[in-house]
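Look at one record.

>
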Amino acid sequence: MSLEAKYKKKNIDIQQRVKAEMESVKKGQSKKNYEQLSNILEELEKMMNNKCLALCYPRIIVDSWDFNDNLGLELLDLAELYKRWK
């Protein structure tokens, strides 16, 4: 599998996880910030076909999310994969 294919598959998978987390926030089952999640989702969607995007979401995660948050760690891994794909 090419780096681009691997990146795009992972991006789609993580978009689904972010959407699920947003639903959990709506139901009161998650304490994450809905607006942050919405901004992250928008950035993930833009990243699908744009190799030149300067990413903002890693800073959000590093500054305000728990260090051991699984979704946060996966999002940071995706950001690293995105840098390599560029």
Q: What stands out?
A: The longest helix spans residues 3-26. The CA atoms of residues 11 and 44 lie 7 Å apart. The radius of gyration is 13 Å. The chain has four helices and no strands.
